[in-house]
């Protein structure tokens, strides 16, 4: 039962926003020591248990070094960014032709999912793409159809940010060398199960398609739900009223 | 034949270059500490196999002390200006994407070639084939980009250092969590949590087990703000012993979809600050300080539907393949 103290340390440490690396090592040591704890266990045994845990942790750490192979992409991406990769992505997005805010975000969702699935997660993101480009473009598309209220403006911006996150989360796992895939491979290896990254990433595809459909439908409905200022609402209400009469 | 050891050598040399360039960067805010941090990772890649388990444990403690007690600074190596980048983007056009696309093509192509062709099997080792092919793709793409763009000699490593600095301690997160998972497995944390859960909710059918695992991943992620951290706990507790071992679920399907169920939790929590709080601030949303700001509220419907779909997909697929 006391081994759960390690899980508690992990949860508490993340909730308190302590540095995760520190939290993880402490959680591991607490777990290992608690597992050895029992009646008649002295300080010597506790020290031995802590040392054994450190050894087990070190062994697993060394076994899962292959994760760092994924960082070999950094010099390439850095070099391409130096030559304007992100600016180029912005040019491509800014040329997207879509009639409404919702459809524009749908195009972005699809592009974000595809590029993430190809490992290009750094092409999108809130500081790089949403704030300078996607949010103003969607606001512009909505305004082209008539004035929007402050509330409507805030909802459009929030939806733009949400669309970037959803495209990333349900696209990146299709790429074989993303952190979550490597974590799964490493964890399963420690449990004595050998899985190739490609096997895991293939099974992220059904969820990715579902996410495109679900969020895509919400985006298409979104256009009709954008709050317009009261004059527009009043006009819409009165025309509804006339139709009813 | 290219093996994991060759890949480790290349990665180790890359981190050594990051370390060296940081060390000679007088403007770096945490010059010595950052150089030591990248240097220790380089050491782990180059000699990790020869320093024993305790040696690796001590190396981990060193990394944690360097990066976990106080923040690592971010260096600002010389790079191109936004104006130059804009001009280059217009001049080079969409060709800029091509080197980046070489990487997934070589990674997937190399993996398939190693499985199905004699040449591929001769070229790439059958241990961690995909990752070796990925490393090969990165190196090939870098060579192509280098020849084409003709940057100053150290530019790829200076630019790589710029990116790795912005990632900081998080470069170790998946590896550290996988190692924590190993300790959890040794201490049978999964067994204890599993007993605790099955004493309250009897996980007697595959459907109930799938729901418990996915819901657990999402809830744990909401609390901790990180699906990576939830994964070793919930998979050791329910995923592995019950969904996979007891009900014979397919390992790859259960884990892949379980992680995605965790991502649904990430969409619903202010604890995932990078994704949910930072954009609310960047976009100056009026409710940016509320725990359920506009971004999270915009995400909740999609997240809940996707959580249900993930449960359904896992239930329908995992026991069939």
Structure description:
The complex is a heterodimer of chains A (245) and B (321). Chain A has 245 residues and is an all-alpha fold. Chain A folds into two domains: 4-63, no CATH class; 69-231, no CATH class. Chain A contains twelve helices and no strands. Chain A is elongated. Chain B has 321 residues and is mainly alpha-helical. Chain B has two domains: 4-172, no CATH class; 188-318. Chain B is 75% helix and 0% strand. Chain B has 16 helices and no strands. In chain B, helix 5 runs antiparallel to helix 7 (129-149), helix 9 packs across helix 12 and helix 11 (206-224) runs antiparallel to helix 16. The model of chain B has no long low-confidence stretch (mean pLDDT 92). At the A-B interface, helix 1, helix 2, helix 3, helix 4 and helix 5 of A face helix 1, helix 2, helix 3, helix 4 and helix 5 of B.
Provide key terms for this protein.
heterodimer; A: 245 residues; 2 domains; 12 helices; elongated; disordered C terminus; B: 321 residues; mainly alpha
Low-confidence stretches of chain B: none
Helix content of chain A: over 70%
Unreliable spans of chain A: 234-245
Mean pLDDT of chain A: 88
**What is the strand content of chain A?**
under 5%
Per DSSP, the total helix count of chain B is 16
Mean pLDDT of chain B: 92
Largest interface by residue count? Answer: A-B, 115 and 149 residues
* Backbone structural class of chain B: mainly alpha
| SSE succession of chain A | HHHHHHHHHHHH
| Through-space gap between termini of chain A | 70 Å
Instruction: Describe the sheet with the most strands of chain A.
Output: none
Structural class designation of chain A: mainly alpha
Structural domains of chain B: how many: 2
| β-sheet strand percentage of chain B | under 5%
Cα-atom radius of gyration of chain A: 25 Å
Helix-strand sequence of chain B? HHHHHHHHHHHHHHHH
Oligomerization status of the protein chains:
heterodimer
**Count of extended strands of chain B:** 0
Distance between the termini of chain B: 33 Å
Total strand segments of chain A: 0
